[in-house]
Design goal:
Elements lengths: L4 E2 L2 H21 L6 E7 L3 H17 L2 E7 L5 H13 L5 E4 L13 H7 L11 H8 L8 H12 L8 E5 L6 H8 L14 E5 L6 H6 L3 E4 L17 E4 L3 E3 L2 E3 L4 H4 L5 E2 L7 H20 L2
Bound molecules: NADPH dihydro-nicotinamide-adenine-dinucleotide phosphate.
NADPH dihydro-nicotinamide-adenine-dinucleotide phosphate (NDP) binds next to helix 10.
């Protein structure tokens, strides 16, 4: 029995943020205005407020102009759509991020799809718009979605590759599981050479015998949102385990993987917190700079 290597996402995220800060400084030294990311925060959900504040702080440290537009929970679809339209045409704004989930009140229900569809694809730093999802599927991504991209970076910078291996992604959300699976299925390295050409299984709540499906994988990526549901018996000895889950249990944050037992079986594993989480913001900064560069050329 060997204990797994702990993949330090915080450290890797700090590396990426330092690189981005340097590239931003070079971009600005070349005469461009600082890249600008505008977050749209609707309502007062405490978790969303924390996320938006963290993003703004990270922007500032990277030399990116991080702005936040606040709307009351009951602003309504039309007002939010009008704000998106305004941000789309504002040439000072390079990246637009709508913090999800949008609130639901007795009076107001937002159509999230319509909002995401309205964001200018060149400013869509989350890569949730249909055009950017399509480009990713075709293997010619403009922006990579931040959480899966963070996982690619974490693997690559830890000298781990899953190219050609069996990878099981558990969870098929549009923000994590599905794009992750698509990136792993690519024939070229356009979404990251360390994840290309994997043999991908995309598991979900209707997967029969999830345990054996997981146990077959050389790399297991859990993005479910169920505290510690992946137990040691579901992990192939020597597998790489990536835990995307962030679940609040009492006053503690835990992942989707039962970390203490899993680390005795896996060869490498991400902790929660300090694993995938910090990388998501790092890749958002990366995408904001990429967006500013794309727009400076148009
Ligand atoms: P969603 O709730 O959108 O999707 C969850 C997925 O898990 C669904 O596809 C669902 O299946 C599947 N699932 C649910 N229960 C089971 C089960 N018992 N067995 C197998 N599959 C199951 O989640 P997200 O992708 O948005 O987030 C997943 C987790 O990752 C959350 O804990 C979230 O907080 C965290 N997260 C972390 C980020 C980070 O930066 N580290 C970023 C984004 C999310 P079905 O489709 O059949 O319903």
């Amino acid at each position: 029995n060997m204990t797994a290597v702990i993949l330090d996402g915080k450290q890797v995220a700090a590396e990426i943020r330092a690189e981005t800060a340097k590239e931003v400084a070079d971009f600005v030294a070349g005469g461009a205005p600082p890249p600008c990311l505008t977050a749209v925060l609707v309502g007062e959900d405490p978790a969303s407020q924390v996320y938006v504040r963290n993003k703004a702080r990270a922007c500032e440290k990277a030399g990116i102009d991080g702005r936040t537009h606040r709307l009351p929970a009951d602003a309504g679809q039309d007002e939010l759509m009008a704000l998106i339209a305004e941000l789309n045409t504002d040439t000072n704004v390079n990246g637009i991020l709508v913090q999800l989930p949008l609130p639901t009140t007795d009076a107001v229900r937002y159509d999230e799809r319509e909002i995401l569809d309205a964001i200018d694809p060149l400013k869509d730093v989350d890569a949730f718009s249909p055009v950017n999802v399509g480009l990713l599927m075709q293997g010619r991504p403009r922006f990579l979605p931040c959480t899966p991209h963070g996982i690619v970076q974490l693997l690559g910078r830890s000298n781990l590759s899953v190219a050609g291996k069996k990878v099981c992604v558990v969870g098929r959300s549009d923000i994590v599981g599905k794009p992750m699976a698509m990136m792993l299925a690519q024939k070229t390295g356009a979404c990251g050479p360390e994840v290309a050409n994997a043999t991908v299984t995309l598991a979900h709540s209707r997967t029969a015998d999830l345990a054996s499906v997981c146990r077959d994988a050389d790399c297991l990526i859990a993005a479910v949102g169920r505290p510690e549901m992946i137990t040691a018996d579901m992990i192939k000895p020597g597998a790489i385990v990536i835990d995307v889950g962030i679940n609040r249990v009492g006053d503690k944050l835990v992942g989707d993987v039962a970390f203490d037992q899993a680390k005795e079986v896996a060869s490498a594993i991400t902790p929660v917190p300090g694993g995938v989480g910090p990388l998501t913001i790092a890749m958002l900064l990366h995408n904001t700079l990429a967006a500013a560069k794309l727009q400076s050329g148009r």
